[in-house]
Design goal:
The structure is a homodimer.
Chain A: H1 8-23, H2 30-37, H3 41-47, H4 53-56, H5 59-71, H6 79-89, H7 91-96, H8 98-109, H9 112-135, H10 142-163, H11 170-185, H12 201-210
Helix pairs in contact in A: 1-2, 1-8, 5-6, 5-9, 6-10, 6-11, 8-10, 9-10, 10-11
């Protein structure tokens, strides 16, 4: 977990996010970031290729973590459950970074080029998750659909977690978003009663017994 | 529907797609496209801002069509059903353009910058669909999740339709992709028997009667 440790990298990241927020991403220079962090430009470039990488360096680690977690989900887990379980494992890391994540998100929302980069990052992540599902024996188009649905759940959960003032944790937002995904992709609308047709098997079993 | 009419625009589009396929997108010039179409560069620029727009000019019309169709879906339609019904309405237009769509897709697959543009186009489409769902009274995060799930269905259906040699029509691929989405986002895996827990309410009813 050394990549998540705050030291030179962490100080540079905090300085960069603060400056991007104050002056805008475009107007901030690497020299200013280094100065704010009390470090040199040379140190900056030992950690990041450029200004933009400060916002995206975690993508590779996140992807590795999620792909590994999908691989180790129980065999019987439905594809979306394997993806969602993987998303839940990121909770502990995210919890430490909520304020940074919040800053990052508002910087990205203010800049079209960064939004595009974020989209590409998420598409890459979806492809990696689909690959991990295929290695579990999930065929196509199932792997791709489950991965894309998982990313939709992730984005919704992440935005709500960032906006949340009550300290609800990330995995809980993930579960809620999955429940909503199941509700909106089901055939009945609005979903009737507690046991909607897209609910967990247990709910369907109950419906079967009741019928 | 005048935007779909083949004339100067159609001839330029066909010439451009043929050349992008033969020489690659990067290496093709506007002068070559105009010459192949038997038209002038000036005519090209009356129809398209640049080379790239030949591949993306239809995005606005597609978005309008889908947003309009979501708006006019039956009130009782589940969010995903409204989106899927909208996707099905595009079938007739797509059917006329299958060969062009196939060419376009392989050109995009060969070029990272075009892939990124395509991702951005689809993200814009997802936002527009979420907006159309909100105007139907669907709240958040439901509108966004249904729109994202709909785009995942669209992409899978589109790729399969393009790859298909048996002439199965686009709406049928859309329905199949929706069925798979429901299967992979359900709780049971693999889905048991013919009536999976995430199937349509009718199928669940059948299972109830059988049980």
């Amino acid at each position: 977990m050394s990549r998540w440790e705050p030291n030179a990298r962490g100080r540079l990241e905090q300085a960069a996010l603060a400056l991007y927020g104050e002056r805008g991403f475009e107007k901030t220079t690497v020299a200013e970031i280094a100065a704010r962090a009390g470090l040199t430009e040379r140190t900056f470039f030992r950690h990041f290729a450029d200004k933009r990488e400060v916002l995206f360096w975690g993508a590779g680690a996140l992807q590795e973590l999620l792909v590994g977690a999908v691989a180790s989900a129980p065999d019987a887990a439905a594809p979306i459950e394997a993806v969602v379980a993987a998303l839940e494992t990121t909770g502990a890391i995210f919890e430490q970074r909520r304020e940074l994540a919040r800053q990052r998100q508002s910087i990205i929302a203010a800049n079209t080029e960064l939004q595009e980069r974020e989209l590409i990052k998420l598409a890459t992540l979806a492809s990696a998750l689909a690959g991990a599902l295929r290695r579990r024996g999930v065929g196509e188009p199932d792997a791709r659909l489950a991965a894309e649905a998982g990313i939709a759940v992730f984005r919704v959960a992440f935005d709500r977690w960032i906006a949340d003032a009550n300290g609800q944790d990330f995995p809980q937002f993930v579960r809620e978003a999955l429940d909503r995904l199941r509700a909106v992709t089901g055939g009945a609308w609005p979903p009737v009663g507690v046991a909607s047709p897209t609910a967990e098997p247990a709910a369907v079993t109950t419906a079967v017994r009741a019928g």
